[in-house]
Amino acid sequence: xxxxxPSFLVIQSLSGLTYAMFLFLIAxxxxxxxxxxxxxxxxxxxxxxxxxxxxYQFVSYFINSPAHFWWAVLFAPxxxxxxxxxxxxxFLSRLYVREELNQLLFTYALVLILGDFAKIIxxxxxxxxxxxxxxxxxxxxxDQYFPEYNIFIIFLGLGIALxxxxxxxRTRWGRIIRAAxxxxxMLGSLGVNVRWLFTLVFSIGAWLAGLGGALVAPIAAIVPxxxxxxxxxxxxxxxxxxxxxxxxxxLGALVxxxxxxxxxxxxxxxxxxxxxxxxxxxxxxxxxxLLGKPSxx
Amino acid sequence: MSKQSWLLIIIILLLxxxxxxxxxxxxxxxxxxxxxxxxxxxxxxLLGYTGLxxxxxxxxxxxxxxxxxxxxKKASLAFPIAFAAAPVSGAIxxxxxxxxxxxxxxxxxxxxxxxxxxxxxxVVFKWNSLTGGDTGLxxxxxxxxxxxxxxxYYFTLGVVVLSLFIIRKMxxxxxxxxxxxxxxxPERTEFIGIDVRFFQLLAFMxxxxxxxxxxxxxxxxxHSLFPDLLxxxxxxxxxxxxxxxxxxxFFGPLVGAAVILYLRMLVTxxxxxxxxxxxxxxxxxxxxxxxxxxGFLRSLRPSNRGGR
Lengths: 297, 308
Prior knowledge:
The complex is a heterodimer.
Chain A: H1 6-37, H2 44-61, H3 68-90, H4 100-122, E1 138-141, E2 144-147, H5 148-170, H6 172-182, H7 184-189, H8 194-216, H9 226-241, H10 246-266, H11 268-285
Antiparallel strand pairs in A: 1-2
Chain B: H1 3-17, H2 24-50, H3 58-73, H4 79-101, H5 106-126, H6 128-131, E1 137-138, H7 149-172, H8 174-184, H9 186-191, H10 196-222, E2 224-225, H11 232-245, H12 252-268, H13 274-288, H14 292-300
Antiparallel strand pairs in B: 1-2
């Protein structure tokens, strides 16, 4: 058996890292929403998909501007955040008094509705956008080439993780959000408008999913079905790391990224089985995830 | 006999007369409704009666379907044996998976049922030599004596009526009462000396048993099987059927299956955007009729006791 080439291993782990950053962006939004609102948002994959489609739309709209991609990355996630906020405000907020199952099913209804809206607007064909001009090149690592755009994603992902952590742990707003995760009644009686806070948190979560969709658009096929596919992987990430745990989400994304990246090479047949086994094993042994805390309830 | 039993007998008789319409369309739809109805009823044993939200019911449906079809196709076993093996394998799979799942509660329970059903899906999807993988398992033939749509309809009707009769007897028995007690309050049930996990596991296994029967029927009915049958949206769909009909009514899931399949038949002849319609129905249901169709009808009755 010949040993794999080290440069090949590096490239492979970098691809895994790139995918992990997308997973992290989306999963951190899902985890944030679950941590505060206690709603497991099935539609998070749909926000990601519509984010990618909107990016395509904005790129076509700003096509004459040299920075068309960057305009799209700015506007598409913000649109998703607004859509998310409206959905939370008008519909989801009315279901908080009900059993958890009702909220879960409502977000599943959104998956069906948004999926078909995307088909109606953008068709069932495969769409794509070019990579932004300044990141078109590739970097030589050892003796292999790796796309600049992917390197940009890795740094951006880590940057957003850091920023996210700073906001949550070092600002007043972060303190309020963390307090809402612990005791929303108490927070309300301290004078914080919890209803608006929930809408805001849902919007931020949706924005993160939309950002994931916007950033993936240049390197993935934008097709119907990307919502259903990603949401399961995102569930795996938050389950492995721990629902509601920030560092857990990052760890879960990194683990799943590498498992997918290498698993497909080593054991193409078993890799896909393995990731679900991993999910089941974590749930059985530590239902609250590797870095999560057992729920007091 | 009570008014309800008479109504039931009349409905069964009407269903038995359906093939006389000689409409292939209605016989086909009727068979489909009976099969999916049984599937939804099997889920409701967990959902409505025991209070366990399983998000992986498609696994047992698929296991039943593939067991029956593979035994006929690859092992050349006679249909009755292959068909009888399906619920056994469904129950065994549910026993093993349930053993782990019932240790968790709420969202974690749902997540673990989802994880296991995805494992089963991935195995079926990737095990090309056995299951045909993505291309599916095609050319599953009816046994000769069932080889007409009317005959297969009667066979399905017989199996489903018998299954529902057994499920009804179970939920009306002390066993069924224990399940609803667990649903209402697991902690208190534990306090009065009932082994909650044991009964949850039993319900999980019985649910897998009947899901596998419906799966076996489904495979033969369609002459073909695809891994999509076990993918998670299938579990979501059957959950919606149960909730649409009314999970706190015995026949709710069957009604839900009938409504969804009938609507789908209608809608898909006009537009391909059935998921959009179904999503809208689901959302409306959650906001305006949280008790499902039968829950809503019951609330209209003047003698309504407000019970579940």
